[in-house]
Specification:
392 residues, alpha+beta, Creatine Amidinohydrolase, Chain A, domain 1, Creatine Amidinohydrolase, six-stranded mixed sheet, five-stranded mixed sheet, binds zinc ion
Length: 392
């Protein structure tokens, strides 16, 4: 088993200058595509472009990035101080335009844009913007043609730079340490919810600021890919699918390992049938990971795992895509799924997580975060992918 270093105090981070590069890059794509402006609300796009992890509120916070002119961060007055200390603002890359409680924030955005966007121009709004703000902006910009910002930002955000990869690696290693702590037991006799709560606490102790999910799926529950955690008591002689993750300095972790609990009784070890299922899955996960290289279509990664599982007689029991991109969001582009012919490029980060699920009986999934390196896969997770037999 790989030894995992404890969390170091000198954490990687994204330097302020990087936000200037990202803003410039996004802006450089506006003119050639006939886009008047990007309108970016609270969420991962805003954090990516400015470093500002704004609170999601009914009050509008929005980066207005016009094709020409300075970027402006429209923010409610009570958030203006928090906005001012965010990386892009403190680095002088954008200005804050505060609005008061009785102001019309959507009209303020429209005033910052005119005349480019009002007369039939195209504006791209962040994909996850709340409908109330979308409708408000459409009222304030009646002439504008509205599209999704991902049209432009996905290709920028999909390719992670060295700082982002360092953060994803730090998050992955923190999650790996939590896996090892849970594998140390005890598990038998505890409820899934109790173990799930322990996972969340340990994710925070290991440096995550948010413990987003802690799937603890024991016995027959392991056949449900997104079983969360319930009151079921964990018993000796059954598997547990542990799928955990959160975010560390904004960057997400997401890893799945399979445990088998014996309660210390050797007679309660993994059944030969479960071993066979697990070995098939492990071979599929390893082969899909090994297939990662620049130029390989995303759907190929899915197919490699799927072909092996199908050849082992479990094709219909693997009924989800093999992976999703990951970064500032747990699920983002690119997706490793049939039909996505997009070629992998150096710097793309995504999960490789095939699963086999036998309803009413049990299931298994193994998940790593993998970065496409210049010559092949860079696997961020380091904890053992074997079936982890837990005595306690
Ligand atoms: Zn999932
Ligand atoms: Zn997961
Ligand atoms: Zn995942």
């Amino acid at each position: 088993m790989t030894a995992i270093a404890p969390g170091a105090p000198g954490r990687p981070s994204v330097p302020d200058a990087r936000f200037g590069e990202r803003l410039a890059r996004a802006r450089s794509l506006l003119g050639p595509r006939g886009v008047a402006a990007l309108l970016i609300g609270v969420g991962a796009d805003l954090r990516y472009l400015t470093g500002y992890a704004a609170m999601p509120l009914e009050r509008l916070t929005m980066l207005v990035l016009p094709a020409a002119g300075r970027p402006t961060l429209v923010a409610p007055r009570l958030e203006a101080m928090a906005a001012a200390i965010s990386p892009a603002i403190r680095a002088g890359l954008a200005e804050v335009a505060p609005w008061d409680e009785t102001d019309d924030a959507h009209a303020l955005v429209a005033r910052l844009l005119r005349p480019e966007a009002s007369a039939g121009g195209r504006v791209l709004i962040s994909d996850r913007l709340w409908a109330m703000h979308v409708l408000g902006l459409q009222r304030a910009l009646p002439g504008a043609h509205v599209g999704l910002a991902s049209e432009l930002l996905r290709e920028i955000r999909m390719i992670k730079d060295a700082d982002e990869i360092a953060l994803l690696r730090t998050a992955a290693h923190a999650a790996d340490r939590v896996v090892e702590q849970i594998v140390a037991g005890p598990l038998v006799g505890r409820t899934e919810v109790e173990v799930s709560r322990e996972v969340r606490e340990r994710l925070l102790d290991e440096g995550h600021e948010i413990a987003e999910f802690a799937i603890v799926a024991s016995g027959p529950n392991s056949a449900s890919p997104h079983h969360d955690a319930g009151e079921r008591v964990i018993r000796a002689g059954e598997p547990i699918v542990l799928d955990i993750g959160g975010s560390l300095d904004g960057y997400c972790s997401d890893t799945t390992r399979v445990l088998w609990v014996t309660g210390g009784d050797p007679a309660q070890g993994p059944t030969p049938e479960y071993r066979r299922l697990f070995d098939l899955l492990q071979a599929a996960q390893a082969a899909a990971t090994a297939a990662v290289a620049p130029g390989v279509p995303c759907e190929r990664i899915d197919a490699v795992a799927r072909d092996i599982i199908a050849a082992g007689g479990h094709g219909p029991d693997f009924f989800h895509r093999v992976g999703h991109g990951i970064g500032l969001e747990t699920h983002e582009d690119p997706y490793m799924v049939a039909g996505n012919a997009e070629a992998l490029r150096t710097g793309m980060a995504f999960s490789v997580e095939p699963g086999i699920y036998l309803a009413g009986r049990y299931g298994a999934r193994i998940e790593d975060i993998v970065v496409c390196g210049p010559h092949g896969p860079d696997v961020l997770n380091q904890s053992s992918r074997d079936l982890r037999v837990v005595a306690g």
